[in-house]
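Problem 3 from the worked examples.
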Amino acid sequence: MWEEVTRHDVVMATVQDFTERSGAVRVAVLLDRGPDREPPLLECERGQPITVTQGEEQVVVPGAALAGVEPLHVHAPKAVPATAVEVRPETGEVHAPIGLIDALVAAVNDLATALGGRTVAMGDWATRSGEVLSIAARVGEPAVLAFGEHEFEVGPPKPGKSDPE
């Protein structure tokens, strides 16, 4: 599996860079590799190595293995402290500075778009209330914002080509 993983060094560097710059506590990517190919799951927590899982196999990729690998250019919002966002699972409410949720959604959309195809990108952000705020996106579909038992579609689908060539 290691040979397969090393083919995605730019993707791994991009996920790691996005995680660090966005302030997300965790970023996960289900990487589209085309029809009839099982997508690997890449997971990264701030300050930690990337874990790549495909089927039953799992590889931990230390940050040093990606030294010198240039990530794709992906817009990431300025890191936001957990105290800036509050979610209330009991009522389904989200309280945040104006434009913050839109900026997070746009950033996750940008990550999914940069990685291409039908890739799914997801980011988790800490909140003041202790509940994680998750945002998932795939090109051509509305983003999904989730916390507690609540899931909301956010905005129109991101324009772009969702089928690999």
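Problem 4, a separate protein:
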Amino acid sequence: MQKDLALVIGDKVDITTDGRRFFKTAIGDIYHDGIVLIGPPIFRRTQMELKLFDEVYLVFYRDSGRYITQMRVVDFQIKDEVRYPLLEQMIIPEKDQRREVYRLPVGVETLLCEYVEGLELTLAMRDDVPESCIISEARTRDISVTGTSLLTSCECLLGEKYLLKMYLDGSRGKKAPFIICGTVMRSENSLKAGMYEIGLRFFGLSKTKSEFLSKYVLRQQQQMIVKRRLIEGE
């Protein structure tokens, strides 16, 4: 293992079992056999309930990026009636391969729709989604040429595929929506009650749609820069 990928005492880490909720904690100690002691993982004042032999994902950060490894609970230390989990590393840490691209901070009205294998080929012809496929309304927090982050009332699981109807040029009814497929790469509870923030990675883009999305992000970015300069010049 690369030296800079070894966990060290004091590392701030996130613990998750499902990729939706990330419980924050830190490395408290490391023993000769590689077992690490962590503090009780906390998510919004709620402590994570762990049992012996539970398997979890541990996320940590280095200058070169975000890394993920799988751990197993092998024991607990009790201090002042608080249980501190002892974790054994199961796999070599892997870098999260999320691409470093510009994410346009923009709220776009979006419909989250059921993904049906092969339906995107039909949509390439008529660029619409049947009403029966619509699952919930959503709104983007940001968009890039590779994916989007959005808020929705629908609880989504990692790896699930969806069709997105994105109204990039305004409200529904003004112009035809931009249809795109996405895979859920991140899903967690939002600070807004009853809402979830999910991150999706686009897939199956045609050359035409990829170019359209790239031009949209660039155009919106340029407009934001112009507006900022006007404000700064006032």
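Solution to problem 4. The longest strand covers residues 65-79. The two ends are 54 Å apart (CA to CA).
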